[in-house]
Amino acid sequence: MKIFISSISIMFATLIALPLFAQSPAESPAAATSPAAVSATGGQPNPQEMMKQMIELSKLNENHKLLATMDGNWNYTIKFWMNPDPNAPPQQSKGTATRKSIMGGRYSVMDVTGKMQMPGEDGKLKDVQFKGMGIEGYDNVKKKFVASWIDNMGTGVQFSEGTYDPAIKTFTYTSEIEMMPGMKTPVREVVKATDNDHMILEWYENRGGQEKKTMEINYTRAGKK
User: What band does 1 get if pLDDT is binned at 50, 70 and 90?
Assistant: First the structure.
């Protein structure tokens, strides 16, 4: 509730302040570039038009409904290709994921739980409990799908932006991860809904200018085969 009140306060404070800045001789020529936010006389910001546009941009559309179709409980199988030997078999593990819509359908939250084998300080593999959480949405301002991800394997937040191709029912997200200081790796995620009960996520990392598939997750809706 506090966040909601703060957001509304900021929005109204911005709209009230705009006419004051518009009268300032130090106004930047790049200010108020949105056609809907500019009045017909004098090129000054129009608070009423801005409010109308902001309300319009807050509405749901088919992109938000598309994300909601993936709500539900899922089982998954994950494969990792971490061994430098290209002929080495991938590591595999299983888990569960739950997706649900929040904020009136504007976002989808996914909670993931599973087990995976990770090397300990002694270098030996051991089972580790994995927990992760993702938030996805469609940004009407950017006209892009947006996503964030956190898990118990690190302390950073991964941010992604993506597009959707309805012809092949595929999302493509791009981002950048930094597992170690200064070691930034471009990432491409491809998520394909093969049908209402199955999804595939493919994870590609760009290493030294070459893209390599390092992870694949196959999701099956709980209760389905």
Answer: very low
